[in-house]
Amino acid sequence: MDLDPRxxxxxxxxxxxxxxxxxxxxxxxAAPQSFRPKKALYKARALEWFxxxxxxxxxxxVLHLDEETIVDEHCVKTCMQFIEKQNDFEYGQxxxxxxxxxxxxxxxxAIGDISRGRDDYxxxxxxxxYVHRPxxxxxxxxLLTNGKVENAIGWDTDSAAEDMWFGLEAWKLNFKxxxxxxxxxxxxxxxxxxxxKQRNRWxxxxxxxxxxxxxxxxxxxxxxxxxxxxxxxxxPYIRIPYWxxxxxxxxxxxxxxxxxxxxxxxxxDAENGIWSIVLHALIAPxxxxxxxxxxxxxxxxxxxxxxxxxxxxRK
Length: 315
Fold this sequence. Notes:
Layout: E1 10-14, E2 27-31, H1 42-54, E3 61-64, H2 73-84, E4 91-97, H3 107-131, E5 143-146, H4 147-153, H5 162-172, E6 177-185, H6 192-207, H7 212-234, H8 242-269, H9 274-304
Parallel strand pairs: 1-2, 4-6
Antiparallel strand pairs: 3-5, 4-5
Helix pairs in contact: 3-8, 3-9, 6-9, 7-9, 8-9
């Protein structure tokens, strides 16, 4: 497709990594080594430099993407329509599928990110499309923001979960989020070590955000993750009323259905064969259970030994 002349592609990085991107046909904006914001480090520091360097105006829009994100013509048109045909929302987000590269190369990490895609179809769609507040969180990728919200908030935070911090700050300032009715495609971590370090940074970063609501959000996310392993451990020793048992059955049925749905959708989008789709749908609930146990251990690790630095997974 021919890009709208108003669209500019930029790579945001740090010095001296900008030398890796010479002569590739896009702008490279590198945060100089001398740039020292009050708080921001790592990714937040680079984003803060980009905001300052480009001198964003209120009617400028930025589509934040990860380095491996794949966008198509439909995605670009959806973003342009969001910008041009509505005035109610200052930022927006859509669905991320994690089937762009080496999908299912590591089944456990693939299932871990299929669960994230399930969240996009469910609770993120609910919060962004109806409540217009990031009550369940925010992704740092496929995030469309205008200059007004960028400049009002900035990225000068020492949080390792800068995307979640940005969404909560936008909420406090009464900026509204809208829904982008499109998808982008990304890549899951390829090794369990990368999976561990990525989730460890997320859990630790969100848990250390200031404020009661932020801490409650982190607690509920952790509780959602560990509830299945804890239930399996203590189930033989607890007695619950029949109505609570029915709720548990309904909850688990919805959990299995929604995960299988997200699994099938991503397989179809990746153009996998019918037998692969059936096999993945059958093993998804079991692999998801293993993933819950793994993420529960990661939560314990994040509490006992918070990560130092900002680990970038290999993609």
